Amino acid sequence: MTRDEEILDSIRRDSGLAELLWHVCEFDLSRDDHGESVRLSSGLALQGVAGDFTGGTFFLCGEGSKGRPVLYASSEGQAGLIGQSLTEALEIIVGLPSWWDCLKFSGSGDLTTMQTTADHLCHDELRDQPEFGAVRGLAVSGQASDRLFHAAIRNFSYSAWTSRGGR
Q1: What stretch of H or E contains 61?
Q2: Were both Cys, which of 23, 59, 67, 104 would link to 46 (CB 3.0–4.6 Å)?
Q3: Angle 92-97-100 (CA atoms, 0-180°, nearest 5)?
Q4: What residues contact 156, with CB distance under 8 A and at least 6 apart?
């Protein structure tokens, strides 16, 4: 069993953890089918592992026993790398539940802008939903936004295409 499989199996066995990841981080293991074809321009295999509220899907890229990068594909045809491994992707989405908004308001990929956005979003999340603080654990928003930034800049190697031709 690979490290990714161990992590996914642990989440499946712990219904409280699975529910928390679903409700707070929109990471649902029961929604691993994207509903349309998604492929990497490199030809690497994709394995759907979870979905979110909006119809997006989290994929493990490639094959093998080492940590596999995680690609997120939205239902609107946008896709990008969000972590170099499942562990890193989970740390990002737990540490920064609004990671998608953080990317959207990143000032075209500026790390300082992304961190400022993350700070504002985290402040709002904690004000509106104090339970987010308990979920975050060791993942601090600054660390999560920094990891997300570095995952995003590695996207060139993981260009994804949907059946609609979106990239």
Answers
A1: strand 57-61
A2: 59
A3: 85
A4: none
Q: Which residue has the tokens 């993981």?
A: 158
Q: Which residue has the tokens 């994929």?
A: 59
- Tokens (6 digits) for 154: 């590695």
Total residue length of the chain: 167
CA atoms of 71 and 158, how far apart (whole Å): 8
Tell me the CB-side half-sphere exposure of residue 52, using CA atoms within 13 A.
19
Do the beta carbons of residue 160 and residue 39 sit within 8 Å? yes
In Å, how far are 50, 84, 115 from 71, measured between CA atoms?
11, 9, 21
Tokens 């499946």 — which residue?
Answer: 12
Task: Going residue by residue through the chain, which has 167 residues, state the pLDDT in tens, using 9 for 90 and above.
Answer: 678 888 899 999 999 888 888 887 889 999 988 888 888 888 888 999 999 998 999 999 988 767 799 998 888 888 888 888 898 898 888 877 777 777 676 666 666 777 777 777 776 666 776 665 555 543 444 565 555 555 554 544 445 555 555 44
Q: Give the three-class secondary structure for 140.
A: coil
